[in-house]
Write a structure and sequence with these properties.
Layout lengths: L4 H12 L4 E17 L2 E19 L2 E7 L4 H15 L22 H9 L13 H9 L9 E19 L4 E17 L8 E8 L2 H4 L6 H10 L10 E7 L5 H11 L1 H5 L20 E3 L22 E5 L2 E2 L6 H7 L11 E3 L6 H6 L4 E12 L5 E12 L2 E14 H5 L2 E4 L4 E2 L3 E3 L2 E8 L1
Parallel strand pairs: 7-12, 11-17
Antiparallel strand pairs: 1-2, 1-4, 2-3, 4-5, 5-6, 7-18, 8-9, 8-11, 9-10, 12-13, 13-14, 14-18, 15-18, 16-17
Length: about 450
């Protein structure tokens, strides 16, 4: 963090060269990735670097510029050229920094640092642990255990770093973040030319968080692939669906996109004009909890430097807010809210996934999505799926080669129950969500 003064200097340099306002963000990231094919290391990548992003407000115009060359002479030239380029753009009076009263502020940078670390979303990895050996160890218990096994692949990686932000209204802030992940996949021989494959993902804030989960990772990946054996289509019709927590963002993304100021202003949101209305089942509550401890996206402030806070997005099916940055709030003549989501949380139910499946005559547990699309304006969608068919809680067969179709509003109004099996994902904390009478073709 010895380089943070470069961001403060860049803001002042931008003002001296003619910008009326400026924001600088300095990020330093370390990344490591190991990939193993069976018992051999096939890829090993490691890189570290810092980058500076400058947001310049010049004569009613706005431009964004970035560099990873932190020499002051070069940054000064970048700022001068950036200001000249920004002056070529059209005037847009709605491009401004946020109202200062909305900023995150702390007594000192040290107090800010302590508050950021208290979010528990950053861990320094034990330097005595060998990531290559950790990656290789995952496949050892299962390689050779099934004669149908063609290949077993493991990806193991970590990412950690910090970001410092400063702007011309006096806001200063630092944030930290790290994650570690391990993903293994197995490919098997099946009847004919079929070669089904599937895998399993485990995540943690760092090695210490991830290590306890690695023991069974290889076995879970192999079992996931084994459950793909013999998978095929089922009879088209209306089905109860259960969505794995790690797959939920495929269905949440269209909702979040429709809530964004960008799409609202562009008149391509199926949630336009629905603020305060029922858009989902009363069983469904979605919140933004950006300061939840141990969350991957936990943060004290957003990309604009605005203090984050707990926010109801959808409460018992009723739409509570939109994502409105300073810019799009001004465009839409509304009050600014959140610029984007950081830690999404779905309120869990009271029963386990298995207990709910036991009550379903027939249900499909979706474990993956394959392509598809959703119309931003109408909410009509079609997604390819793969999963498992259950009858009264007993697995019957793997499912593939099918699509779910419908409308996003109707889909979320079809939520029948939510399980209590909350999992931490990169996007937030999600349980299994059950839908009823969804078209499967």
């Amino acid at each position: 963090m010895k380089r943070i003064e470069i961001a403060d200097w860049a803001v002042n340099e931008a003002l001296q060269k003619g910008a009326q306002a400026a924001r600088a963000e300095l990020s330093c990231i370390d990344m490591l990735n190991v990939q193993c094919e069976d018992a051999e290391v096939s890829t090993l990548q490691q890189n570290s670097g810092c980058g500076l992003v400058l947001r310049l407000f010049v004569d009613g115009r706005f431009g964004t510029f970035s560099t990873n060359r932190l020499d002051r002479t070069e940054i000064s030239a970048l700022i001068a050229n950036g200001i000249a380029c920004t002056r070529l753009l059209s005037i847009d009076a709605d491009r401004t920094l946020p109202d200062p009263s909305r900023y995150y502020r702390s007594e000192s940078l040290e107090a800010n640092r302590q508050e950021a670390l208290a979010l528990e979303n950053y861990l320094e990895n034990d330097p005595t642990l060998d990531p290559v050996q950790l990656a290789l160890s995952i496949g050892q218990p299962v390689i050779g255990s099934d004669p149908r096994l063609i290949s077993f692949t493991t990806q193991f990686g970590t990412r950690s770093g910090w970001q410092y932000g400063a702007d011309s209204q006096g806001v200063r802030g630092i944030s930290f973040g790290s994650n570690a992940y391990a993903y293994s996949s197995a490919s098997l021989h099946d009847e004919g030319d079929s070669r089904p494959s599937d895998g399993w993902l485990e995540t943690g804030i760092g090695y210490a968080d991830l290590l306890p989960l690695l023991t069974d990772l290889g076995r879970k990946a192999l079992q996931a692939a084994q459950w793909r054996l013999g998978a095929g289509p089922v009879k088209p019709g209306l089905y109860h669906l259960a969505i794995e927590p790690v797959c939920l963002m495929k269905l949440l993304d269209p909702l979040l996109d429709a809530m964004s100021g960008f799409n609202l202003y562009a008149h391509r949101s199926f949630l336009a004009g629905k603020l305060g209305q029922q858009i989902a089942s009363s069983s469904f509550t979605l919140t933004e909890e950006p300061q939840r401890k141990g969350a991957f996206g936990a943060c004290l402030y957003d990309l604009e430097g605005v203090r984050t806070r707990f926010t109801d997005l959808i409460r018992k099916g009723c739409l509570q807010t939109y994502f409105l940055s300073t810019y799009y709030a001004r465009k839409l003549q509304m009050e600014p809210t959140l610029s984007s989501s950081n830690v999404l949380c779905i309120e869990p139910g009271t029963r386990s996934r298995q207990a709910i499946l036991n009550d379903c005559p027939e249900a499909i547990l979706i474990t993956g999505f394959l392509g598809g699309n959703c119309n931003e304006l109408t909410g009509d969608f079609s997604f390819g799926i793969e999963g498992q068919l259950f009858r009264y809680g007993e697995r019957v067969q793997g499912v593939s080669g099918m699509n779910i179709t419908g409308n996003m509003l109707q889909l979320w109004q079809s939520v029948s129950e939510i399980a209590n099996d909350v999992e931490r994902t990169f996007d937030g904390f999600f349980p299994t969500v059950f839908f009823e009478k969804i078209s499967l073709q």
